[in-house]
Amino acid sequence: MNRRKLVMATAAVLVAAACGSASAAEHALSADVVVVGAGGSGMAAAVRAAELGAKVVLLEKNGVPGGGAAFAEGLFGVESRWQRAKNYGLSVEESAAFLQRFDHYKSDPKLRRLYLEQSAPTLDWVATHGIKFEAIQVSPSETLTWHVIGKYKDDQHGAAYIHALADSAAKLGVKTYLGTPAKSLIMKDGRVAGVKAASATDTYTIKAPNVILATGGFGDNPKLVRSLLGYDPARVKSSVPLNKTGDGYQMAIAAGGAKTAATAVLHPGTEGKGIKFLSNLYVMSWQPANLWVNDHGERFAPETLSFEFALAGNAIASQWKNEGWAIFDDAEAERMAKDGADVGVGVIIPTETKLPDIRKEANAAIAAGSDAVKSADSVEGLASAIGVPAATLKATFATYNKAAEMKYDGEFFKMKQWLRPLGKGKLYAVRLRPYWFCTLGGVRTDRGMRVVDSEDRPIPGLYAVGAEVGNVYGDTYTTWTSGHLFGFSAWSGKVAAENAVKSLKK
Ligand SMILES: Cc1cc2nc3c(=O)[nH]c(=O)nc-3n(C[C@H](O)[C@H](O)[C@H](O)COP(=O)(O)OP(=O)(O)OC[C@H]3O[C@@H](n4cnc5c(N)ncnc54)[C@H](O)[C@@H]3O)c2cc1C
Predict the structure, then answer these.
(1) Which atom of ligand 1 approaches the CA of 62 most closely?
(2) Is 60 near ligand 1, meaning CB less than 6 Å away?
(3) Global model pTM greater than 0.70
């Protein structure tokens, strides 16, 4: 992927900076602020703290900066100048009212209100670092809150954000150490006194009165996935494994931080023999005109849910064995080739992208013995191919096709534009599986992003931001406020940095 290459280029600059300052095997450093994690929130925190005059050390576990943010595309904002440019009038109050109910009151509405109110100024601040935005809506279920990032040098989207902030960090004198994960916090008299970190060869003891944990969640830690989310990590997994093992969460809890509930931002997808990521068949796993069935052969959701990827992912994850099938016919494959996808995969595969190779890819996968792609000339044949009871699948088809003829889905209330009878020509089925973009939560903070203890008192000097934070989301994510995660990462990173620097002056 282009963005990966470009992040690597950024990394080369940062590695050089890191190497310049490290020669012995054991290093004793000091800083005003240590930021743990050079992703969406950590980059914002490091740059903001340095901009305000602090001496900043930025630690990154991987050999390149970026984390999940390097793969993301846009940030949430409301009442922004980019929305004004499109004559779009959603207000902070409308967003707050929607989210308050959507969250089932499982978050801190005042924390979220602060984020909503400051989302547009946060985008303005990000833009001062050379980042361009365009407000974009990519599905009928969204509002126009997704501020997709334009080009910066030779990067775009999240990689451009990381590249631009990495350039600013370097200019502002942030000392960045790649391939150097933080291992533990140094605590003294109940307050943060620094961090211990280690690269493959060297160890670091960094004295600092402020540490900002920005490690992006625990999606690549099977034990935490089981205990905090209750999912089988072999069945519900990261869409892009990034070595995010919940280090920030574990450090915060070890320091006496309070826990919150955690969740994950799921989306539909597929994998298996003969299926390439983002191929035509992969994109079919997101399409709303398909018929979705579970491993009993029963329909389980309105397929237009794929316009709200997180809810679609939840629906699939809730089925037996956390999986299902997306079924379509020759007529639908032809329509996709001619008219293109009804919904894109973010802006990487935009809506209306023509999918001419669906059947070619399906036939090749089937010829290779794929367990994730099947086809048949009849419903009975398909039932046998995907291993569901033929009588149940026939009944499901009959009810669905009746609903499609009447343009009324009394079972799941699917939007009628995407309700089409199935059975013209051959039938195809692609495995549906749930994946997550990132996990959310685990650590409780106050509204200044300070980690709080079991008595809700801030632990002096300890901050958590971005995906570490639990009390800003309810039990799931909504694309109604698209970009909410990345926007929150930038906002919370900036706020933590401002409060950390303020504390230096006390
Ligand atoms: C394909 C994809 C597309 C997405 N698109 C969007 C989108 O368009 N809009 C949106 O709102 N969200 C999107 N997301 C989610 C988005 O990536 C996250 O919201 C955002 O990156 C979270 O920021 P963060 O700083 O918390 O974590 P990250 O950006 O993941 O950064 C965490 C960093 O911490 C590092 N780290 C971990 N442990 C340690 C340690 N011990 N020491 C040092 N460093 C450590 C990691 O290596 C990583 O670099 C997308 C995610 C994916 C995977």
Answers:
(1) 47
(2) yes
(3) yes
